[in-house]
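Before a computer can learn anything about folding, someone has to put a protein's shape into writing. The outcome of that step, for a single protein, is printed below:
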Amino acid sequence: MFAKKTVFVVGAGASAEYGLPVGDKLKANIIDAMPKPREGYEATALHNAMHLSQPNRVTQMMAAAQRIRQGLPLATSIDRFMDYHQGDTDLVELGKLAITTSIIRAEAASTLVTKNAAPIQFSKLDLNWLTQLFLQMQEGTRRTNPADIIKNVGFVCFNYDRVIEHFLFHAVQQFSDCSENEAKEVMKGLEIIHPYGRIGRLPWDQLDRQEPELPFGDQGTHPTRVVDISKGIKTFSEQVEDQDPAMLKAKAMVREAQKIVFLGFSYLDQNMIYLTPNSGLDVNTYLFGTVFGESATNQSLAKSAMVQLAQGISSSGFRTFTPSMHVTKAGEFMRDEGNSLRR
């Protein structure tokens, strides 16, 4: 069990350890899924969902597909691209549909999916970040109160997938040898925010029954459900303009944390703005970040971005913060630093 309130800010690099696409790969997948001019429609999940979503605007949606094909390669992420084109409703709607179908396929191909609904083989995932994290989460807990496992741990996940929820539910169930219902009760206490939404809730997650349900790894999703799920995908502007409760909650989580850990994160301006609270963090807040594969310049920029976040929007900037930067993958960081992080 973690001794201090710890928030993990999770990016695509963390989910990549389970076979999910990082930002550039997701962009490529979305571009490839777009129909080309003068080519017919294929019977793909995206095309079926597009026809169902806008049956009377196929020509306009085809034009939006061309705009995505041409412009998305020049964007830092699909999130940034849709935010830039916020006024282009056809492009944004098609982008959300493409995200939904792409992540559905990616989850189904991930290392967390087993044949015939067999239990997850955690022994094959020992170097991944969630396994290394769970090793620390379970320390000091007892079977009499499994809810302690997730105590003092929260997540702000900038990914659309449900890797964290799926992993922890099954990890709690297998580690505790408990029923699905007991694991459900434990997971009710999980504090997790998806700033840009996610591709539906998992079947055991009953906290928001209004959110469409989608089992992890299910590719046989009807176009109607794809359309419904895509409505839960959000752009940055939609949240800022609407004062989205998820954004306010994420800022509060960051503000109240004693330790903040960035894993597989890109430190893009848009995402850092989303997280930054109005007032600065307590000067004793610990900051950690992974910068695997980044240049020295980008490592320095990431560190500066973390300092700016810690100082807050309205802070005078007099507080001094020294983030601990690690040129490792998320799993390696948790393996090397998890024991001290927990204390």
